[in-house]
Amino acid sequence: MRAFEAVQYYFDEAAELLELPPQMREMLLMANREVSVQVTIERDNGELASFVGYRVQHNNSRGPMKGGLRFHHEVNLDEVRSLASLMTWKTAVVDLPYGGAKGGIGVNPRELSMREKEHLTRAFVDKIQDIVGPDCDIPAPDMGTDYQVMSWFRNQWEKYHGFNPAVITGKPVEEYGAKGREEATGRGVGILTMKLIGRLGRKAEKSRVAIQGFGNVGSHAAKYLHDAQFPIIAISDISGTYYSSEGLNIPDILRYTLEHPNGLLEGYSHCDHLPGSALLELEDADILIPAALGGVVTAENVDKIHAPIIIEGANGPIYPLADKQMHDRGVTIMPDILANAGGVTVSYFEWVQNRQHYRWPLDRVRRELELTLVNAFEKVWEISQQHDVSLRTAAFMIAIQRVQRATELAGGRS
Ligand code: NAD
Fold first, then answer.
1. Of residues 70, 98, 72, 93, the one with CA closest to residue 83
2. Burial profile 31-45: b = 16 or more Cβ within 10 angstroms, e = fewer
3. Residue 171 known to be catalytic
4. Backbone CA torsion sign across 78, 346, 97, 198
5. Which residue, 25, 56, 59, is CA-closest to 131?
6. Which candidate, 97, 61, 100, 109, places its Cα nearest to that of 81?
7. Catalytic position from the list 66, 102, 117, 195
8. From ligand 1's centre to the CA of 357, what distance in Å?
9. What is the reported pLDDT for 324?
10. Contact 231/246 with Cβ under 8 angstroms?
11. Tell me: the pLDDT tens digits for 245-295?
12. SS3 state at 239
């Protein structure tokens, strides 16, 4: 299954329940604009190298479009299209005044020097600078990009348009970035996990957690949940799974990753080391948090997934057939468009601060993040109970209704 088909499947399920007219469905599914550009740089050895860059602007009915910029060798138009559409539903479900977009370049950033990465970023901005901006489309970091890439992006864009740091979010804190942006997605995953287990009548100390991926999202989620007394029994990254039935020492592991190359867990020895695939299949995990890649739970491996609760830290980690099968056997799944919305929420706070030329302290960012996510969770929970549907279908129903309403108010008829 292709990534866009998966989003379309979830959209259709909710649209059916909402009895959304066919013309409106078509309008809301199709992207406003899809751009592919050639990005050419001179490598350090003097040779030229060309890459394909994408920006898909899905929908702007509720405000300027918002979405990350990914540098990854598997980036392709289908994936970017699906992620742009997810951003529209994500910003709508947490009720941010934004639409959805996504971009990326098909490149392995690990194979680029810093100089090459900078030139690639600037060459990409040269190609798309006229279609992004603080009032139309605001990029942010995603897989393979970070605050440094955001800084280059802003600097290059400002050469054309003048000072305006609100053109991009995820900037360095000392250069118009927001305090708390880096931790925001993982922290949001933690906040929402707490809310969900409360609703399900579980206690933190008795809910054993396994987290796939120990990058930005996975490590901050682990920290938050460890501080909240959850036993984290397993974490994984590209070097394998690290397991302890007693619960891992997360502060010690965080220290270890800071001191080792590329933040990898490789070589950490104060626990059992299992193959990477073991994490998803653990029989003693109560909460599974996929926080690495898309498409990791499919019809092929769904029978081996035992956790009764799944929180989607990553975008699109579960494909529809697996999702349906797990829903039928009573697994509670917190969908990506809600679970990992903490990042875009604090990106929104950053954009607001830039536009006000004002800075919020960290405790205000954290307080408002929690308020935004908890409000969204309560609404999603209420609709899922009212209509007896999964949290995913409820989240899509809320998001679609909000985008439909904005489209109609602006004069679009179905
Ligand atoms: P990251 O690059 O910081 O971390 C990814 C982690 O996954 C790394 O630890 C890597 O080693 C691990 N990984 C890669 N392949 C793996 C595999 N096969 N098995 C186990 N681990 C593997 O990325 P991130 O920013 O943490 O993003 C993770 C996911 O969350 C992505 O799907 C991203 O789109 C989504 N997301 C991120 C944010 C954000 O603010 N960073 C916001 C919303 C959604």
1. 70
2. bbeebebebebeeee
3. no
4. positive
5. 56
6. 100
7. 102
8. 32
9. 95
10. yes
11. 999 999 999 999 999 877 889 999 999 999 999 999 999 999 999 999 899
12. coil
